């Protein structure tokens, strides 16, 4: 018992050191974001005034202005943000439904070749999408899906990692629930919709974030099949703000802030469920 106070006494300084290091690392990661946020409210002449020599004033605009945002949203960039929100929302909703149904079938409905199908799905998300984007874009052009919402959405709704996350969660649900429901006359669809889906909220949020980040931050695929102004997505419109004649850093920073706010807010709102979904993704099989 005499060693217990010493152990507590040595543990507390370690926690303090770890906390200090964590705060320091967090501040280092936050500094570029704070500089970007500050730059979005600066005038063109004030943009790089405090960069060299470097001073703390780099994070505080000398002249505060909203012109970067008003100019940006008055142009085609506002439509591109709407397109990104619409395409991503449809991708998440449809992708979650398809991924959840596939994961439920692989976890609970025993059929011949289920392990082979699951292995193919696992291998599919190990292949970088950029490696198949160009030939796939040629196929979509032949199908007449270029510069359409359907062409932008289709590749994002089938995500092997989302199916993997949901399958691992469904494997943790006691099989007795499904057996009892089957004895009561409930169909497989009823078991999935009324029992498994309501229990899988943390896993659905985790899989939804996977689909969201894949679609929201996509650049190569929208660049290949969605270059028309009517369907252009945010990342492409942001890149188009820099031309060979002019680079409007204020507008670029403002656009980057607008495209960062959406995933940041979602992560802050659902961070607890997202962490729980990662914890439930074990090695069951």
List strands and helices in order, with pairings.
Elements: H1 3-39, H2 67-74, H3 77-108, H4 114-124, H5 130-142, H6 149-157, H7 160-171, H8 175-183, H9 188-199, H10 201-216, H11 220-225, H12 234-239, H13 249-279
End-to-end Cα distance: 44 Å
Low-confidence stretches: none
Shape assignment: globular
CATH superfamily of the largest domain: MetI-like
Class per helix and strand makeup: mainly alpha
| CATH architectural grouping of the largest domain | Orthogonal Bundle
CATH class of the largest domain: Mainly Alpha
**Percentage of residues in helical conformation:** over 70%
The gyration radius over C-alpha positions equals 24 Å
Output the number of helix runs: 13
CATH topology of the largest domain: MetI-like fold
**Sheet having the most strands:** none
What string gives the helices and strands in order? Answer: HHHHHHHHHHHHH
Question: Beta-strand level of the residues, as a percent range?
Answer: under 5%
Question: How many β-strands, per DSSP?
Answer: 0
Mean pLDDT over the full residue set? 85
Indicate how many domains the architecture comprises.
Answer: 2
Oligomer: single chain
Protein name: Carbohydrate ABC transporter permease
Family: Belongs to the binding-protein-dependent transport system permease family.
Main location: membrane
Pfam families: BPD_transp_1 (PF00528)
């Amino acid at each position: 018992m005499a060693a217990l106070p010493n152990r507590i006494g040595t543990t507390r300084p370690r926690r303090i050191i770890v906390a200090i290091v964590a705060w320091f690392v967090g501040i280092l990661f936050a500094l570029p974001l704070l500089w970007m946020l500050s730059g979005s409210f600066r005038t063109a002449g004030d943009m790089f005034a405090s960069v060299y020599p470097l001073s703390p004033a780099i994070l505080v605009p000398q002249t505060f202005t909203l012109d970067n945002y008003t100019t940006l949203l008055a142009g085609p960039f506002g439509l591109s943000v709407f397109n990104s929100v619409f395409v991503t929302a449809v991708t998440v909703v449809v992708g979650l439904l398809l991924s959840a149904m596939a994961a439920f079938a692989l976890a609970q409905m025993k059929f011949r070749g289920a392990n082979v199908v699951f292995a193919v799905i696992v291998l599919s998300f190990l292949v970088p999408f950029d490696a198949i984007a160009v030939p796939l874009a040629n196929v979509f052009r032949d199908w007449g899906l270029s510069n359409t919402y359907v062409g932008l959405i289709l590749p994002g709704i089938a995500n092997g990692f989302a199916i993997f996350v949901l399958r691992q969660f469904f494997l943790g649900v006691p099989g007795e629930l499904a057996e009892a429901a089957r004895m009561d006359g409930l169909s497989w669809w009823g078991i999935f919709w009324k029992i498994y889906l309501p229990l899988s909220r943390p896993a659905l949020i985790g899989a939804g974030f996977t689909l969201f980040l894949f679609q929201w931050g996509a650049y190569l695929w929208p660049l290949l099949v969605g270059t028309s102004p009517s369907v252009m997505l945010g990342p492409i419109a942001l890149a188009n703000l820099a031309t060979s004649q002019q680079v409007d850093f204020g507008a670029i920073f403002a656009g980057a802030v607008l495209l960062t706010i959406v995933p940041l807010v979602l992560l802050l709102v659902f961070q607890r469920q997202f962490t729980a979904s990662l914890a439930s993704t074990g090695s069951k099989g």
